[in-house]
Amino acid sequence: MGMHNSLRMLVGVAAALLSVGPALADTFDFPAGFRTQEIATNGTTLHVRIGGTGPAVVVIHGYGDTGDMWAPLAAELMRNHTVVAPDLRGMGLSAGATDGFTKKNEAEDIAGVMDALHIARADIVGHDIGNMVAYAFAKSHPDRTTRLVMMDAPVPGIGPWDEILKSPLLWHFRFGGPDMERLVAGRERIYLDRFWNEFSAKPEHFPENSRRHYATLYAQPGRMHAGFQQFAAFDQDAIDNRASLPTGRLQMPVLAVGGDHSFGATMAFVMRFAADDVHQIVIADSGHWLMEEQPKATVAAIRAFLDADVALPQARLTPAEVEAHARVGAGAGTSGLSGIQTTVLSGDPNAPGPYAIEIRVPAHTRIAAHRHRDNRTALVVSGEWHFGYGDQANEAATRTLAPGSFYTEPAGQPHFAFTGDLPTVVYITGQGPTDTTYVDPANTPSRK
Fold first, then answer.
1. Burial of 427 (0-12, 13-18, 19+ CB in 10 A)
2. 319-447: which CATH architecture?
């Protein structure tokens, strides 16, 4: 597609892209095991849904919906991911807010949520306005962004943004302020129906119960104001994003998802202005509301991307060659205790993809209860390993594992270990990036 045609497509569909976020399927109930939490962050409080186990995925909604939209995705991901679904600043069930709606600032809202949940890194998924917050987060916190999913909306200041703004279809970008809020008050359903109808491939795929649900939420005091403020911040968002470009292009894998009746392949076109590793998918028979119109196809695309394995390199090491490998202190994915030595045998525990490490643990070492974000398997090579599962390190709950013993460390599940009179060597394999989080933060070695 030539540049001229690409820009014309952008202008023609931009109203669909940025007006409002997608809605839910037929239910707003998250699966059993999810909880809600009000999390104070960056001068406000966000309403957050949390559930599942394993590597974290933060999903960020757009305007016209709330974090409720992600229920179908959460149901699929929760079996091997921890899903975090906040309502944006001032929206949904989050605390009311009158300012702070630049996407750079809202990215710090998300960072604060992750801090409160002790999540060091996460896959970040955004749709509509959530795209803009997700991009700002990835730029400000590339070390905390494992993968990035951008769904059916461009980003202020990136690529052909100025061409998009020339379209008269984008009247709603400037629709806001006290007078407009008074005009819409009591008529939220009428205002939102226009976007839900015009920017879907088939309006009937946006069901009535979803329309009532979101219209009711946006009719609450201050919610339309917060929504309009998301758009009012676009000019500053563009300035912020352009100013961040000299810091370098995004290096994490990026999935660009577009509906074939909406942004389509242009989502990837936009992201290639700012990221090196962009993967493209177009969802058939869908407009802007990907999670609403084609939830199964959209969820499958996101899951495949988040679970994609990095190729496992060939490696054959004799014991002498293992011994010759560089040995460092307690590295990524270990307990972090002084005296433990780590050898990376394959891959990189800090990066996406499979890895294998050897850990050497001195005699009389006690490792408190902790968890890792990835599923891991382990083999005891030498010594004697006293290993147990649970939130409290209890020697009576361990099982003694002699050389040749095998065990697992399921993602997100706490476990602990001790050594006796013998030092112990263990081989561990997992899917990076890995980490270590102690159940009791006071036991974190860096805090002692």
1. middle
2. Sandwich (2.60)
